[in-house]
Amino acid sequence: MNLGSLFIISTPIGNLEDITYRAIKTLDKVDIVLCEDTRVTRRLLNNYNINTKMISYNEYNEIQKIDSISQLLIEGSSIALVSDAGTPCISDPGYRLISSIKNNHPEINVISIPGPSASISSLSISGLPSDCFCFVGFLPKKKGKQKKIKELINFRGSSIIFESPKRVLKTLNDLFAVLGNRKVFIAREITKIYEETFYTDLQSVSLDKISLKEKGEYVIVVAKEGY
């Protein structure tokens, strides 16, 4: 029996032209595309005249679908996994499926089709040290948030945090309260039409010296102490 392969494909984080030729070719040739939101992925596929079948695979149904997806791979289907934007499994669904395959069906190939990542794209233009960094993802909304921030106090590198527009100012103030005044780079809607970036410090944010819109996704890069 010929086993299928699972392709982990990075998709644009904003600008639809930010996709590799290999990603387009793979999305066109696979049997199924697993996606967080079929409406979002359909816009991307339509842009490149791709008509591959889509199946919803997101945080609400991923555990229930692991067995059925694994069976499709065992039966020879080639499957692509994408998130709404960026690299799958980075603060997005997917790692549980891959973990299950690695543990239970190691003969199935899991192949990376690399591309855009909001965290690395933001770090690359931040002007902050990039030789050592940690990706925090989204901080807990309430319980455990302060504890998570305190874990960053002694980290000797840049910290990358994702945040929603409605919580970004509160999170920046929390970072200032725990970490003190540090250099910070803030990116909003990176690669999109209304992209904004700020190179400032946490104290300036706390004093309302910059205006942050309650729209779009934010990436926060916080410098190590003393930079």
Commentary on this structure:
The protein has 227 residues and is of the alpha/beta class. It folds into two domains: 109 residues, Cobalt-precorrin-4 Transmethylase, domain 1; 105 residues, Methyltransferase, Cobalt-precorrin-4 Transmethylase, Domain 2, CATH 3.30.950. The protein is 32% helix and 22% strand. It has eight helices and ten strands. The strands form two sheets. A five-stranded parallel beta sheet has the order 3-2-4-1-5, with helices on one face. Helix 2 links the parallel strand 2 and strand 3. Helix 3 crosses helix 4. The longest helix has 13 residues. The radius of gyration is 19 Å and the shape is elongated. It starts with a strand and ends in a 5-residue tail after the last strand. The mean pLDDT is 95.
H and E order: EHEHEHEHEHEHEHEEHE
Regions with little confidence, pLDDT below 50 for 5+ residues: none
Largest sheet: 5 strands, parallel
CATH topology of the largest domain: Cobalt-precorrin-4 Transmethylase, domain 1
Class from helix and strand fractions? alpha/beta
In CATH, the homologous superfamily of the largest domain goes by the name: Tetrapyrrole methylase, N-terminal domain
Count every helix, treating DSSP H or I runs of 4 or more residues as helices: 8
Percent strand equals 15-25%
Whole-number mean pLDDT: 95
Supply the CATH architecture of the largest domain.
Answer: 3-Layer(aba) Sandwich
Q: List how many beta strands DSSP finds.
A: 10
User: What share of residues is helical?
Assistant: 25-40%
Gap from first CA to last CA: 57 Å
Number of domains: 2
Radius of gyration, CA atoms, in whole angstroms: 19 Å
Shape: elongated
CATH class descriptor of the largest domain: Alpha Beta
Strand order of the largest sheet: 3-2-4-1-5
